[in-house]
Amino acid sequence: MSQRQVNLFIAMSLDGYIAKEDGDLGFLAMVDNPPEDYGYAKFNETVDTVIIGRKTYEKVLSFGIDWPYKHSCYVLSSSLSGHTEHVEFYNGHVKDLIAKIRQQEGKDIYCDGGAEVITQLLKEDLVDNLTISVIPTLLGTGIRLFPDGRPELRLQLVSSQAYPTGLVQLCYRRAGKALGMRVS
Amino acid sequence: MSQRQVNLFIAMSLDGYIAKEDGDLGFLAMVDNPPEDYGYAKFNETVDTVIIGRKTYEKVLSFGIDWPYKHSCYVLSSSLSGHTEHVEFYNGHVKDLIAKIRQQEGKDIYCDGGAEVITQLLKEDLVDNLTISVIPTLLGTGIRLFPDGRPELRLQLVSSQAYPTGLVQLCYRRAGKALGMRVS
After folding, report:
1. Residue B72's closest CA among B22, B14, B112, B42?
2. A interface toward B at CB cutoff 8 Å?
3. How many CB pairs under 8 A join A and B?
4. Considering its fold, how many domains does chain B have in total?
5. Does the interface ipTM go beyond 0.90?
6. d(CA B77, nearest CA chain A) in Å
7. Residue A25, SS3?
């Protein structure tokens, strides 16, 4: 059995922001075009575990919607512990959490951000696949998906797809990995 | 006659850098695949004037190659003045330079960087078309194409094309502009 992979599925503006400075996600409305889901449901079938950071968790709660993740969800936090109906808090390093998850068989692992958790994963070279949806706008300032100070990482383009809304979805895998190694 | 447009044609890593911190462009070699020019010759037919910043000018000189631009070339600089065989130095603001160029009929205007000049243009809302070639790598740190602190700018996707090297070229125009307005 091959190792469970760690995958990103996230949107950014052309200038690299996932949100405005205050966390506002209003720019995503410009590509809102139901029932188009930009492959999100299909992606969700490939994973069974979600990792998010504490700020992202609180952002999701602030939406006032039903809990959106169907999978086991870990929230990285140094201040919260235990679990709720929907999530389990994890106080350690994300690298150890991934190792813990990988001790059990299962599908791939979805990291839904935020940028701090993704940066930690990239610093540990733990990201296997990146699906980046580029939104046709320059936000000008905000929270960067890729802040400075990460290691270099060569990628391999898997696919790119443009949608009528102007969203372009770019799928990459970490380069240097043999293809077809995932045997379930 | 419509106004001469200001166009970018530039490559960045997926994490938004046009060069390493020291100006190194080595990452572009991974998509070097002659005779593939990613549309550069065709793009050059649409322009007859080039604007670059002083640092980019000195970078080009450092390559020790023949002067690469076939068009009139302005170099923005506060320290250099007059002209050389290939370029004319301009000590004013890029906005005034564009206005000056537009007083004469001609093709579109190509801004080849660096990031400082492009940022000035974006702050003045003077960029009409952006051709961004996304290189399949995360550089981790470097010189950003889009540093923080610009105004928001909605874009319209014109095309996207993936190449066998993994480069994806994204072409945008500034949104809100009527289509087919350019009459020559």
Report:
1. B112
2. 14-16, 30, 122, 130, 132, 134, 136-141, 144-146, 148-157, 159-160, 162, 166-168, 170, 172, 175
3. 104
4. 1
5. yes
6. 25
7. coil
Angle separating helix axes A94-102 and A115-123, nearest 10 degrees: 70
CA distance B142 to chain A (A): 8
Q: Is the peptide bond prior to A147 cis by the omega test (within 30 degrees of 0)?
A: no
B27: nearest CA partner in chain A: A154
> Whole-prediction pTM value?
0.93
Q: Which domain holds residue B79?
A: 6-174
Instruction: Render pLDDT for B99-128 as a digit per residue (tens, 0 to 9).
Output: 999 999 999 999 999 999 999 999 999 999
Q: Which residue has the tokens 């928001």?
A: B152
Query: Is residue A184 included in any domain, yes or no?
Result: no
Here the CATH number for the domain that contains residue A140 is 3.40.430.10
Of chain B, the end-to-end C-alpha distance in Å amounts to: 6
* Chain A residues with CB-CB distance to B153 below 8 A: 137-138, 140
**pLDDT for residue A179:** 47
- For residues A181 and A2, the model is more confident at A2
In chain B, the residue whose alpha carbon lies closest to the alpha carbon of A160 is: B162
Contacts of B175 in chain A (CB under 8 A): 136
Q: Is residue B182 part of a domain?
A: no
Q: Say if strands B143-144 and A47-53 run parallel, antiparallel, or are unpaired.
A: unpaired
pLDDT per residue as tens digits for the range A40-76: 999 999 999 999 999 999 999 999 999 999 999 999 9
Chain B residues lying within 8 Å of A167, measured CB to CB? 157
**Reported confidence tier of residue A1, pLDDT bands at 50, 70, 90:** low
**Could you tell me if residue A79 is inside a domain?**
yes
- Quote the minimal CA–CA distance from A80 to chain B in Å: 30
Ramachandran angles phi, psi of B172, nearest 5° = -130, 150
> How many Å lie between the alpha carbon of B56 and the closest alpha carbon of chain A?
21
Q: What is the mean pLDDT of chain A?
A: 94
